[in-house]
Write a structure and sequence with these properties.
The chain has 252 residues and is α+β, with helices and mostly antiparallel strands. It has 12 helices and 7 strands. The strands form 2 sheets. It has a 4-stranded antiparallel beta sheet with strand order 5-6-4-7. A 3-stranded antiparallel beta sheet has the order 1-3-2. A hairpin with a 2-residue loop joins β5 and β6. The radius of gyration is 19 Å and the shape is globular. It starts with 9 loop residues before the first helix and ends with a helix.
């Protein structure tokens, strides 16, 4: 039985499929029936309209496949868009510029709706709480912040900075802000779930869909810290390698 990944937006499902089923060089992916099943969408009129919109926005390119299943490739613009929802992807392809971004916003309780909306929009930016109303991220999100608040009521409550880390223990900072040990534990639990799925009965595509669902759930929580902060041996990097191995076994 397939357990769906908990993502409603067709756009996100398509971008995820194109990234996770290819590689950091954005190989061409055929959106055949198996892919549709695994990523929980069908090629109905709404999905075709979403694909057309993504092509027009230069977030994907139409592939060269001539069969009934259309193929597409992710673009760097689409990758950046996806990385604002799943920040753990960004530094698999790109190099960290060694800058930390600090975002501060204090929106009064009387405007709680604005505050909650801002938090929802920023939840995929790899932000971690440093101090009250101060959030930290290594991701280049300033353009996204401008696009989110410029000309809106929220702008008057926001301040943002870019800085270098010049003093203090980075390990202490990472644990305080992003909860590295807690995330490590969740990845270890993920590996146990994957083992349970793989050792059970069922079709390969259904097994992969269930592996994917569990992975996506945790990727939502991973702030996507670069190796310079979290270390070369970070379990999140291992998880991606294992996922690729599972993909090779189940989808070959």
């Amino acid at each position: 039985m397939v357990t769906y990944m908990g993502i409603k937006e067709r756009r996100t499902k398509i971008l995820l499929a194109l990234f996770l089923l290819s590689n950091v060089d954005f190989a061409e992916v055929s959106l055949d029936e198996n892919v549709q099943q695994m990523f929980d969408f069908t090629l109905n009129q709404k999905t075709k309209a979403t694909l057309t919109s993504l092509v027009k926005a230069a977030e994907i390119n139409k592939g060269s496949a001539k069969d009934e299943s259309p193929s597409y490739t992710l673009t760097i613009k689409g990758f950046h868009s996806l990385s604002l929802e799943f920040p753990s992807f960004r530094f698999l392809k790109e190099t960290w510029d060694k800058k930390l971004r600090i975002i501060s916003y204090e929106i009064p309780e009387a405007k709680r709706e604005l505050r909650d909306r801002l938090r929802r929009e920023m939840q995929g930016w790899g932000l971690g709480p440093w101090h009250r109303s101060f959030w930290l991220t290594p991701h280049p999100v300033m353009d996204a912040l401008h696009g989110l608040v410029d000309g809106k009521t929220e702008a008057q409550y926001c301040q943002a900075f870019e800085a270098d880390h010049v003093f203090g223990d980075k390990a202490t900072l990472i644990e305080k802000v992003w909860g590295k040990s807690s995330l490590d534990k969740k990845y270890r639990e993920l590996f146990k779930k994957w083992h349970s799925i793989l050792s059970g009965d069922g079709e390969k595509t259904i097994k992969f869909a269930n592996v994917l669902k569990e992975y996506i759930s945790l990727l939502r929580e991973d702030p996507g810290l670069p190796k310079e902060l979290i270390g070369e041996g970070w379990i999140g990097f291992e998880a991606m390698n294992i996922f690729k191995e599972i993909q090779g076994i189940l989808l070959s």
